[in-house]
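Now produce a polypeptide, keeping tokens residue-aligned:
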Amino acid sequence: MQFTKRDFLKLSAMSGAGLALPSWAQAKPLFDVINMFVPAAPGGGWDGTARALERAATTAGLVGSMQFENVGGAGGMVGLPRFVNQRKGQGNALLVGGSVMVGAAIANKSPVTMKDVTPIARLTEEAGVVVVPASGNIKTWKQLTDALKANPKAVSVAGGSAGGTDHLILGMMIQALGRSPKEAAYVAFAGGGPANAAILGGQVTAGISGYSEFEEQIKAGKMIALATSGSRRIPGVDVPTMTELGLKVNMANWRGVFAGPGLSAAQTTALTNLVTQIVKSNGWKQELETRKWTDVFLAGDDFKREITANITDTEVVMKDLGLA
């Protein structure tokens, strides 16, 4: 297509009048393709975060397309080594992970950890929610805590991978109730989908995960939300915190994106710029509101320092709970 001075003047006039430019005149995406790696099964929090990033990025015209790969298991410890080995030096690959991965690496004594990838940005924070199936015998917070206090081993609780945030929340609950966290009957699942199925099918007594993973079932009346694990209530959600209910437990789950090892400074900067632009987009802001995620965006050296501190803090908590 030949683009003349007259065409340019017409486009300038259209732009000044607030009209959209034709598709062939739009700015080129920052990346034609981003390979998004999710170290968990479809349907969970990491997968949901990755899909939200895709929607916001493509809608804003920042990325041409995203190609997905899901490899679940052991809180990301099955997929992480694969990502590290296959995506080394690749400047168009991202991995979604977070606090669950920190605990899982410690619990599994994994030789490959978050220290082996390139931190790009922390994105969100989400408080956990404790739920029970509406068809179950336990329907209130008091009934659940009474059962846990009497015999934790008899109260099976579904959640994400062993050593992850959900597991830590249960351990802290049991400890706050005066029992040993080692008595927890925790049932780990590789993703939110299988955990949902187990709870709804009555295979477990209760479940713990991020609110967004259970929201649909809660609104449908199939699950009862008893308490949340954050320092304050989730905006727009009428469910009390554990602190309000008299149990001193406070923990939230953060999620972020990482690149492979061996990237150049230019590659790291390009990916950081992409994620920063996605976070600024209206599409991403809508995702935060819809999914009840808290914006805790942090990039660069500040994010690296935060990860180091989080690993240290998690090691302390897990040792206190007998999980490491």
User: Anything to note?
Assistant: The mean pLDDT is 90.
